[in-house]
Amino acid sequence: MKFNPRLPKTCLHEDCQLFRQCLTRRYEMTYTVKQYGWIRDLPDHRDHLYAAPTTALAALPHMVDLRPHCPPVYDQGQLGSCTANGIAGAIQFDRMKQKLTPAFEPSRLFIYYNERVIEHTVDSDSGAMIRHGIKSVAEQGDCPEKEWPYDIEKFAVKPPAACYKDASVMFS
């Protein structure tokens, strides 16, 4: 990576693709830009930035490696379902951390469909906001991946009623 001093130090573009282009020109990097489906959350007056108290930070270890306790990384393939994949991984990690049984692999396609219901974009592979994915899981839960498997051809198909029933039971 070679630094190009003629370009500005910061990029003010809101669009991530333009930011990547500026960064690429500044450091003369080459890589493939992929669109994974994340949509920036809209501002919400209830959002707060968290800052841990300094005393709590001082008590933390210098380094922690949680990888041995994490589920395998999901492959979203060519579907813009990154928020659903991330949320499913977080659910699975949290359940493993709490030693909850049964072992549960959340349905990523169920989350992706329902976050797009909130956004009124069910018929398109349009990505989603993390806030809407979390909201959908908080309100109705998630069914097991075995029940509604990650088949990207079915991204616009509504999951069966049994999935919604099982989702509410799993998260009650």
From TrEMBL:
The keyword Cytoplasm does not apply. It comes from the Bacteria. One of its GO terms (molecular function) is peptidase activity. The keyword Disulfide bond does not apply. GO terms for biological process: proteolysis. Keywords: Hydrolase, Protease. Gene3D superfamilies: Cysteine proteinases. SUPFAM superfamilies: Cysteine proteinases (SSF54001). This is Papain cysteine protease protein.
